[in-house]
Specification:
The chain is an alpha/beta fold and 510 residues long. Helix content is 21%, strand content 29%. Helix 5 links the parallel strand 4 and strand 5.
């Protein structure tokens, strides 16, 4: 979003410190946790913490082409190469923005401006073909570029200049590169969120947008004299995820000089985004002291020691995500002894289930911890409304509770025989999530006792994983597949039993 101020170029005494033995914070998670890197300043501990990278300034037009037709690609190349060598998703930031543009662009006529913007987008698309994301237009609400009229101005749609930029990005970026819109100060105001959704829809109906960027700076939540309600932020975030487009938090920071205050606010605002299923990744806007746009948002001190917020973050991201509830949900006439079911949460070893007659869970009817993803409940009161939620647990701690759902009992009690359901067919469901990074879940059903094999192959037909091989009784099953050791690409999952074989394509994206 911004020009960093007072950048300190360190003599890297940090390199003399003992190497940290920690793995990346989000390794094995279904969403990335990345960071921004400075132009020409590649921190040696970067891959210790983060598994996605965005150039802070090196990818901006003004940084690359300060003199017309004279290009300085080297700093951006360095960051791009770091991403490729580590298998990180690389995001180019950014193509069109009303700040940090070349000063010379205002001195050429409209036709030349249009040609130069198109050329810039073409060159980036061709040079960084393995980029995973591109911020095509940055801050369209707050920083309209001086050359917007050359790209069509507001035009018939009100956003013709944005449409033109996305059309060129779609044309010149390789197929599969995700095109993003990026803005700040979106979530705290319902009207602004509505306006952002309208612009997103303008691009979406034209097939031009693949994801939504929300910056997530601290000042977007609170500042001197104001604090925006968490419920408003969360509700507007869910309005964006409801589009079905992946949402990315692109420039998160907590700018607080006092360690305890920074930690307290990390605990409030980071989970707001991290635990939202529609948010597919988060990028922090810097982490090293002295190399920050907001000077007090750093997480690692210049001597190599970590602030408490980073120590908490490492533990927190190891906790499972809150589970997604399946059934019963929003139904009436449920048996008095229902079976509560939910989706498994990656890395969870058990689940805590609570059921109550009120949405505040002040009166608990059930409080049970189970290893499975279902819980048969003893008979409840008839014709009564119940609320329930689930938390996922592992050795690192307990997740927040899932979203609460509700059901109403009827009069009947179901017998075990009525409840038992033997699958009627041999099925292999599409893995979830898909695409995935690096783990995913595969559900399948077996209708009769027999020998079953569930394996994963690459596109050359080579076996890369055996998820199950042995005898299965009739039932529904879930297998976890971890692709941490594999390269990005398409794989095939095959379920076989006797003469029957079913296959599904899996897409691993790192």
């Amino acid at each position: 979003m911004h020009v960093r101020k007072d950048l300190v170029v360190f003599t890297i005494v940090f390199m003399l410190f003992p190497a940290l033995s920690f793995s990346q914070l989000a390794k094995g998670k279904t969403k990335f946790l990345g960071n921004a890197l400075s132009s020409g300043l590649l921190w040696p501990n970067y891959a210790t913490y983060w598994n996605q990278v965005t150039p802070g300034n090196a990818g901006k037009w003004g940084s690359v082409e300060g003199i017309q037709d004279s290009y300085n690609w080297a700093p951006l190349d360095d960051i791009y190469d770091l991403a490729l060598s580590n298998g990180f998703p690389f995001k180019e930031h950014c193509l069109v923005w009303g700040q940090q543009q070349p000063s010379w662009v205002t001195s050429v006529d409209s036709a030349m401006q249009r040609a130069q913007v198109e050329e810039w987008i073409r060159l980036v698309g061709e040079r960084y073909g393995s980029a995973y994301f591109v911020d095509v237009v940055n801050e369209p609400f707050h920083a309209v570029p001086s050359y917007a009229n050359a790209l069509g101005g507001t035009g018939a749609t009100g956003w013709d200049w944005v449409i033109t930029a996305f059309q060129w990005a779609r044309q010149y970026c390789l197929k599969g590169v995700k095109l993003l819109l990026n803005e700040y100060n979106i979530l705290q105001d319902n009207t602004v969120t509505t306006n952002y959704l309208a612009l997103i829809d303008t691009l979406r109906v034209r097939g031009l947008i693949d994801g939504i960027g929300i910056q997530g700076h601290y000042f977007e939540f609170k500042g001197s004299g104001y604090t925006y309600p968490i419920n408003t932020l969360k509700a507007n975030l869910q309005r964006l995820t409801a589009t079905g487009l992946p949402v990315y938090i692109s420039e998160f920071d907590i700018n607080e000089p006092v360690d305890s205050v920074q930690l307290a606010n990390y605990k409030i605002y980071f989970p707001l985004f991290w635990e939202e299923p529609g948010v597919k990744g988060m990028t922090l806007w810097g982490y090293m002291q002295g190399d920050m746009w907001k000077q007090d948002a750093y997480l690692v001190r210049s001597n190599g020691t970590e602030r408490p917020a980073l120590q908490w973050l490492r533990r927190y991201v190891c906790i499972p995500f809150p589970p997604v509830l399946v059934s019963p949900s929003g139904t009436t006439g449920e048996p008095r002894n229902p079976v509560l079911t939910w989706r498994s949460s990656a890395s969870a070893t058990s689940y805590r289930v609570q059921l109550s007659t009120d949405s505040f869970f002040s009166v608990i009817a059930v409080d049970s911890t189970v290893a499975d993803t279902l819980l048969p409940v003893s008979p409840l009161a008839a014709n009564t409304r119940y609320f329930w939620h689930v938390s996922a647990l592992n050795d690192s701690g307990a997740s927040s509770y899932s979203a609460t759902t509700v059901f109403t009992t009827g009069d009947q009690i179901e017998t075990v025989e009525e409840r038992a359901e033997i699958p009627k067919g041999f099925t292999l469901s599409q893995n979830y999530p898909n695409p995935f990074n690096p783990s995913t879940q595969i559900e399948y059903t077996v209708p009769s006792t027999g020998r079953v094999s569930l394996k994963v192959y690459d596109l050359m037909g080579r076996e890369v994983a055996t998820l199950y091989e042995g005898t299965r009784q009739p039932g529904n099953f879930v297998a976890n597949f971890d692709g941490s050791a594999l390269s990005s690409g398409m794989y095939v999952c095959r379920l076989s039993s006797g003469a029957t074989s079913l296959s599904r394509k899996l897409v691993l994206v790192k």
